[in-house]
Each structure stands twice: as structure tokens, then as C-alpha cells.
Specification:
The complex is a heterodimer of chains A (376) and B (198). Chain A is of the alpha/beta class and 376 residues long. Chain A is built from 10 helices and 16 strands. In chain B, strand 1 (22-26), helix 2 and strand 2 form a beta-alpha-beta unit. Helices cover 31% and strands 24% of the residues of chain B. The chains are: A alpha/beta (376), B alpha/beta (198).
Chain lengths: 376, 198
């Protein structure tokens, strides 16, 4: 812990192996599984100060600090988590975990299927939000955490925080559901489907068993990421950041890069395709599409939320059109219906869906204040 | 009556609310009324405010707050869900007065409103002297006031009659002193407990 930089400092990824079978929502059963995780701060004697951080599509267990082998690899939510930061590691014991089905060490398509001795690839079952949360409950058991002081997440991570309150109402005291939704809209599913089709139709996909061919469906993954990036930003922010700025002085009259936005998207796509696993991308978009806790209640979200016992903070961002404020408000009204303690902040921000990762002062003040009010 | 943070109308409002009720406070500010109602009466309360500073203050006060624009309506809240819907010193800042009162009585069994009485003698004197009133209850200049509707107790009661809203109780005061004689002239703040008429 480094007090001068408010960083948690060196972060140590750990692996937890679970020799228990995990039945999945889709009907498959994982005979055993691993979860890779990091922790920051100290678990108190009462074990009452633990906070779980759930990640979104491309995130992982490395939430804060840096890794010994690469000091430049700063955690994805380092601006939030650390000593003196809004999620203060002097008060809380913070846990970051790579989702089941992920590609950062937790059991997923890139890990070895014990039945075949080869990577799971496309044979890895579709993992949904409920499965991620069930696996996280095993990790909580392992760490001796009977109940989380809070579970926090943005986007898919926010869905997991919400699911925690429904699957394990007695094991979570506060849920911070950020830039999330109680279910995706048709438009949102449509974007995910285009991303999946980009991957599935890449000749290098090989039905998901590309590992054996020594290739990756980089073109598909790149397109998927480019599309995603467009939807995570707002029109305003893109206009402000890129406008019609040209990469070179004159138009090329070719299909080379003309505009800065093209260059940006290509760069982001290439970077992502260089490290992320396409099968994990497919699985994770399905997890997003399938999440619909009200589904079992005939679409009645308030009825679905009746099981929850936690207190809630719901946060959305004004220019987030992928997970629009209206979707967050649906959650809030469902919580109010059940008389649950809930607050809702709609943050004015130009950065679209990506806002939840940024350190907007008002946004962070809301989170800081909420965390300060949590008794441990 | 217990004094809540120097807001005399809070005491009146608190007296109209029974322990354990469900309360919605529109334009809840920093949440001090809800905090008081929660601590003293075990009320299950939610505040509504659209000012980010107020939302932050409510969270700091441990009060539930929902950040929405009141003018956009209360459509997310269910019919008759709340025992009381409170609007403390904010009705004059709302443009669509009729719709707001209708919405309050849709989502609440009763509504409680308090507002500055523009008919107060000092305000009449200011107008008579050729100026818009500026006073303790109307502390703004005409060019920077958040108030968009200017009405007296008499005006408000007429509107209630037109809209079929029942006035169940009325309290008027000047500073912390209750006013019973000609309140439309002598009171600077009025508070009403309202129900659906008929």
C-alpha cells in the first residue's frame, strides 16, 4: 500500500480451485472449476468489511494496483479502489474476481477440459449471470465471507450485483448497481448479435476450436470490439474527441484511414484482438442477453425483486444509450415497490456507457459518500 | 412539536404523519425532513430531487433519494402506494401545478404541501410600493428566483375547489407563530393536508 499515490500497490493474483461440481443455468455441469482473484485491504475480525467488485465484458480480477511482472498493468478500476479512494481499502477488504468463462485464468474456453486434455473452446458451456454469481458464492465461502458488506459492478458487473441480492439475499448488505439494466433491450441484443456474427463467421474461428489450429479469429474479434466501442461512447463525445478530424492532411480517396475516428477504432480493435479470447467474448455477450430476473415472474420486475433484502445504490449516466437511465429507473421503481432502501443518482456525463469507468468528481463523490455510510 | 433544523413547516408536516407510514418527499433537498421522520417515526421514506448536490446530501444523510425531474412526472410510482406525499416549500417552483397536485394524490393517500403565501401583508405592501416582494419567505429577486408560480392561500384554496381536492387541515404561520386571524393577510407560510375530494 502506497499512501502517497493512493494505490493499493503490488497486486497478487491468486487462484482458488473448487473440487465441487457447479450446475449451470443452461443445464451443463462443470465438474470442478478455478477462479482467479485479487484482494486489497484487510478482512476485519468480524469478517464484515468485504466488498466484491464484479467486472463487465472485457474486465477481469485485476481491479487495482499493479502486477510485479508489468508495473504498467494498472487495475481497471484503480481510480475507485485504494487507500483514501472512494472504495477505501483502509476500511474495506476488496475482492476482484475473473468471471467464470473468462480468459484471464478462471475456468473458461481457453482452459483445459479435463475430459479431453485440450482447451474447452466452443465446448465450454454458456455461462450466465446466475452462474457467475453462484461461482462467486463459492469464493466467498473459501474466503470466510458469510455476507458481503457490498457488491459493486458496472454494466454486466451491475447485473451481477443485482443478481447477488436475488440469489443470496442474506449474503449481501448493499448492492451498487451502476450503468446496468434489469434486462437488455432488443437494440442492445442486436448489437451483441452483430458482434457475435463477426466472430462466428471469421474463417479463423474453426467452430470455436481455433486454438488447435494455432490461429485466433482476430478479424471477427476486432470488428466486434469496434462496434462495441461505438456504442460505449456518446455521439457528443465522439464529435468532441474526433469530429471529422483527418489523420493526414488530405482525403485519401481510398479505403485507407481518412478520419481520426477510423484510426481510433482500428487501433482499439487490433489491441483488443491481440489479447482477448473470442469464445469468452461470445459467452459474455450471451450472459448479457440472457439476464432477465423478471423473466421467471412473467416480466414482473417488482415481483422478481421481492426476494431482495439489501440496500441499493443505483447509478446511471445521462448520455449512456447502451444502458440508458430509463433502464436503471426501472430497477429503482421495482425496489421502491418492495419498500427496499434504494437511492438513485443520474450523473451528467458526456462519456456514454464508458462513464462508469471514469473518475467524474460527482460520480465518485456519490460512491464515496455511499461507501462511507456502510457500517462494517 | 420538535423543531427540525429551524424549518417550522417541518414540524407541522411531521405532526400529520403517523409512525411507520410510507412517505414520498418531493423536492426533498438534503433529506433532513425524511431523516427526522425516519428517526422519530420509523417512516419508510423516499425523497425525490433533481439537484445533484441535494442527491449527494441525501445519500450522506442516509436517506433514500431518487434523482428525477419532478416536471417529468411521477409515472414510475404506483397508484396509492404512499400514505403521504409531501412537497415542502416547493409547489411554487413547479410549472404544472394542476398535474403535480393530481399526481401527488394519485400516488399518495394524502398530500401535504407547504408554500410561501404571496398574499402576506408585507408582500402586498411591496407591490403597493411598486416592487416585487422580497422577504424571509420569498428571499429571491424577481430575476433569480426559482419560483415560477405566484399564488396566495386564497388562490390555492380556490384551485383545490376547482380540482375537487379536499382540504383536510390547514396551518398558517408567521415565523414560528401560528396565525389564525386572516391568514391570507397575516401568514407568510401555509401548510395543507389534502385528500381526494368527494
Amino acid at each position: 500500500m502506497d499512501e502517497t499515490t493512493n494505490s493499493v500497490g503490488l497486486a497478487l493474483p491468486r487462484r482458488a480451485h473448487f473440487d465441487t461440481s457447479l450446475p449451470l443455468e443452461g443445464g451443463a455441469v462443470l465438474p470442478s472449476f478455478d477462479l482467479v482473484y485479487e484482494t486489497y485491504g484487510e478482512l476485519n475480525a468480524a469478517r464484515s468489511n468485504a466488498v466484491l467488485v464484479c467486472h463487465a465484458l472485457s474486465g477481469n480480477h485485476h481491479v487495482a494496483g499493479w502486477h510485479a511482472d508489468n508495473p504498467k498493468n494498472i487495475g481497471w478500476w484503480d481510480n475507485l479502489v485504494g487507500p483514501g479512494k472512494p472504495l477505501d481499502t483502509r476500511k474495506f477488504f476488496v475482492v476482484g474476481v475473473n468471471n467464470l468463462g473468462g480468459c484471464y485464468g478462471s475456468t473458461g474456453p481457453v482452459t483445459i477440459n479435463p475430459a479431453t486434455g485440450k482447451p474447452w473452446g466452443a465446448d465450454f458451456p454458456v455461462i450466465v449471470v446466475e452462474d457467475c454469481v453462484a461461482s462467486q458464492a463459492h469464493l466467498a465461502d473459501r474466503l470466510g465471507i458469510e455476507s458481503w458488506a457490498a457488491v459493486i459492478g458496472g454494466s454486466l458487473g451491475g447485473m451481477q450485483a443485482l443478481e447477488w441480492t436475488l440469489a443470496y439475499p442474506e449474503r449481501i448488505r448493499h448492492a451498487l448497481v451502476i450503468a446496468a439494466a434489469p434486462k437488455l433491450t432488443a437494440q442492445n441484443i442486436a448489437f451483441n448479435e452483430v458482434a457475435r456474427q463477426a466472430i462466428l463467421t471469421d474463417p479463423d474461428f474453426h467452430g470455436g476450436h481455433y486454438y488447435e489450429h494455432g490461429v485466433v479469429p482476430a478479424r471477427g474479434l476486432r470488428l466486434a470490439r469496434m462496434l462495441g466501442h461505438i456504442t460505449y461512447l456518446s455521439d457528443d463525445q465522439m464529435a468532441e474527441k474526433f469530429g471529422r478530424k483527418l489523420r493526414r492532411e488530405a482525403l485519401q480517396y481510398s479505403y485507407e484511414v481518412d478520419f481520426e475516428i477510423e484510426s481510433y477504432l482500428r487501433y482499439q480493435g487490433d489491441k483488443f484482438a491481440g489479447f482477448f479470447d473470442a469464445n469468452t467474448y461470445l459467452i459474455t455477450t450471451k450472459a448479457l442477453d440472457y439476464f432477465d430476473p423478471a423473466g421467471r415472474y412473467g416480466g414482473d420486475l417488482p415481483a422478481a425483486l421481492a426476494r431482495a433484502r439489501a440496500k441499493f445504490l443505483v447509478v446511471s449516466f445521462s448520455t449512456d444509450w447502451r444502458f440508458a437511465p430509463e433502464r436503471s429507473r426501472e430497477i429503482v421503481y421495482g425496489l421502491v415497490h418492495n419498500g427496499l432502501d434504494a437511492s438513485y443518482a443520474e450523473i451528467e456525463s458526456s462519456a456514454g456507457h464508458d462513464s462508469f469507468l471514469l473518475d467524474d468528481p460527482r460520480y465518485h463523490a456519490v460512491l464515496r459518500t455511499y461507501f462511507e455510510g456502510i457500517r462494517t | 412539536m420538535t423543531n427540525v433544523q429551524g424549518r417550522f413547516d417541518f414540524n407541522v408536516i411531521a405532526d400529520w404523519i403517523r409512525p411507520g407510514e410510507k412517505v414520498l418527499d418531493l423536492g426533498c433537498g438534503d433529506g433532513s425532513l425524511l431523516r427526522y421522520l425516519k428517526d422519530e417515526k420509523g417512516v419508510r421514506g423516499y425523497g425525490v430531487d433533481n439537484d445533484p448536490d441535494n442527491v449527494l446530501a441525501c445519500i450522506g444523510n442516509g436517506v433514500n433519494v431518487v434523482q428525477i425531474d419532478l416536471e417529468a412526472g411521477l409515472s414510475g410510482f404506483e397508484d396509492g402506494f404512499f400514505d403521504h406525499v409531501v412537497m415542502s416549500l416547493s409547489l411554487q417552483t413547479v410549472r404544472h401545478t394542476e398535474q403535480m397536485l393530481a399526481e401527488m394524490l394519485r400516488v399518495g393517500r394524502e398530500a401535504v404541501v407547504s408554500f410561501p403565501n404571496f398574499g402576506h401583508s408585507s408582500h402586498r405592501e411591496a407591490i403597493a410600493a411598486g416592487h416585487m416582494p422580497v422577504s424571509k419567505s420569498l428571499p429571491y429577486q424577481w430575476y433569480n428566483t426559482p419560483n415560477v408560480r405566484f399564488f396566495t392561500m386564497a388562490d390555492f384554496e380556490e384551485l383545490c375547489a376547482v380540482l375537487g381536492i379536499a382540504i383536510r387541515e390547514r396551518v398558517a404561520f408567521e415565523g414560528e407563530r401560528l396565525v389564525t386571524a386572516d391568514p391570507n393577510l397575516n401568514a407568510s407560510i401555509a401548510a395543507y393536508r389534502l385528500g381526494r375530494g368527494g
